[in-house]
Write a structure and sequence with these properties.
With 592 residues, this protein is of the alpha/beta class. It is built from 19 helices and 20 strands. Bound molecules: adenosine-5'-diphosphate and magnesium ion.
Length: 592
Amino acid sequence: MTKFEKLGINSVSELALLIPSSYEDYRLNDTLKPHKNQLIDATVESLYRAPSTIQITFFSHNLGHTLTGVLFRPKPYMMHQFAVGSRDYYYGMVECKQGNCSMVMPKKVTQIGSIVPKYKCGLRTDVMWRFIKKELRLECLLEEGIPSDIAQEVLKLHFVDSLDENSSEMSASSMEALKYIELYNYMLQLSSKRRYFEAIYTAQSDFKEWTKSLPFSLTAEQIATIEDIKNDFTKTTASKRMIVGDVGSGKTMVILASAYMVGSAKSILMAPTTILANQLHEEALKFLPNLKITLVSSKSKKESLEEYDFIIGTHALLYRELPTASLVMVDEQHRFGTQQRNKLEKLVNEGTKKPHYLQFSATPIPRTLAMIESAHIDVSLITTTPFTKDIESHVIHKSDFKDLLAHIKGEIAKNNQVLLVYPLVEQSEVLEYQSIEEARAYWEKNFENVFVTHGKDKEKEQVLLDFREKGDLLISTTVVEVGISLPRLTTVVIVGAERLGLSTLHQLRGRVSRTGLKGYCYLYTNQKSSERLDEFVNTTSGFDIANLDLKFRKSGDLLKGTNQSGNQFKWVDFVEDEAIVTRVKKDLNIGG
Ligand code: ADP
Ligand code: MG
């Protein structure tokens, strides 16, 4: 095994990131430095053994006086370092009391004259130091593509020529160098994984005519995203793009515009549920009257799909023979397994050529993360929604229950709908909130048209459809994060809100006020105060919430049920380091 393997690294720049945990100053000095580690040039004059300590009398030549060395609980091998009459270099912590100075746990040092870094890693300290001196050289870092200013800065952390003993903090420029290298290595690796294939379809297309046919004008970010895709279609390599936009940001229009541009060269769209596939199908029929469109579900007849321009379906698509398509799209991509997504992509392959591939996700990610990800997949962000959603959010407690009931009755009187989300209870748990089963009796007794569903409910799609038509109150667990639109839903009450991750809360809140009605979101909690929930109610932007999520995760407010974003960075901070990400992107020549 090489030393690189033992350390679990692949390159010199990764070696540079294994910075010392401390330094030892092996330079000889003729003044005594109490309370500090210090090197002495000394002759061992005598040795005295007590039951659990050994005392050594040193004569220090550099200081010009004697000094007592003290070893606590000495191990046998330590003894060889202190032969009476011999002169050597010793290093240890110097303490002085009433004019008597001692060195605690002195150890013999052979190589002197420099500041030696100490490493906490899989190698012995001296082995590691020799390895670093051999491998970690400026020219090696430059060869790996690290810019010279960064390389020089990081080398300073290993090869130190002075110690600022008053400061234990790393300088801003050292920090920046570490962040840079960490990002550089990560993004380089990502981009090397990206494979380029010839596209089945390459064309100049346009969507301006189509936008004229719409009942509303597209938002600037919808247009910018469609422009990105239009530009992808002009390339001879198959594109791979992720479109990330909040719930309600109008991603469907981007899907339809893409299918419009491809036209008879054929598009396929996969959605995670039958309801959503139906909804997309209806919208496609409405806004793309000139395309031959079909809907595929597990119940569809197995007729040939050859004649259609735009095939929309659930994962039932994976079990059908599909015509060669120029474009493949996956809506609500985060709800599919990687395997299902890949399978779809494979199904529509023609020889070595590939379709353009667009994935749509409603899980907002911080902009910096999107930029990092762009090393292996292009990313378009839609951060605004066509209507400014008017949603009031409040953190509420038991004492607010009466007001809450009055509000719910008021909304129902206005023919609006209310969603009550209860925590998912595992049997082993003792919970301070009611479960759905406990709560439903109350609501069913006091309200009409109450519908209940939960995650394992096989009928949940039907329950949701029935509720949409004739319900007042829907009681559920977090299942309703399905993309079905409930136009009359104006209020969501989330019981035990502190148990859920901010992104889940955001998804749930995104269910209400989808058509511009005034919306309300109540976070019901038994917690006296929560900064996390307080900050949540102050913003409705999913992108702000993604940043908040990072902030609270970093501050240790880790909750069960939050989906980890897998922060594999030790130095990089997604919220603060956009400028460094930008530089790395530029240096690595990653576009988009
Ligand atoms: P998403 O899929 O991103 O959650 P949708 O595509 O379902 O959002 O859009 C939400 C609602 O906004 C739909 O009713 C849609 O018709 C409407 N919509 C989309 N784009 C616009 C726009 N530019 N102006 C007005 N309404 C829009
Ligand atoms: Mg959608």
